[in-house]
Structure formats: structure tokens, C-alpha cells
Amino acid sequence: MKQTAGVHHITAIVGDPQENIDFYSGVLGLRLVKKTVNFDDPGTYHLYFGNETGRPGSIMTFFPWPGAYKGRIGTGQVGVTSFVVPENALSFWI
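The chain above was modelled as a monomer; its predicted structure follows.
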């Protein structure tokens, strides 16, 4: 089996860009590392969130498409994304 050095980033599709920023920055405390455009669809933002230094492996990115059809989970798709936090920080996150 092939081994990887880890995940560089995860990308997801969301609805409202401001709700996305409010949640990932305001609630989870991730830094909005960068805001660019989706190079395949220049009318759409590409939002990058990560730790304080934007270290690869800490990055989640989003393409906000308000009004898009709600997707259905199928074969090969991710249904849940989880974050790891230090055990001594669990009371803060709860």
C-alpha cells in the first residue's frame, strides 16, 4: 500500500461565504489565511483557513456557491470532517 506524508489541505463546497468565515474564524478560531478566486470559476472565491502560520496539513479551503443544489453523499465522498485538538484543551472546545 502506498504511504503519504500527510494531507496538505481539504476542500469543500459551502453556501454563504460570510457564514463560512464567521464559523471557521469566529467559532473555531482558524485564521483566514488567504482569499483568492477559484481558477476554474473566477466568479467564485476560494477561502483558505488554517493555523496561525498557515502550515500545510492545517488548511481547509472552501468554494462558496450560494444557491447551489444540495449534494448527496455517494461513493468516495467525505461525509464528516473532524479536527484533532490537544487533550488538555477539550474543556475549551466543549
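The longest helix spans residues 17-27.
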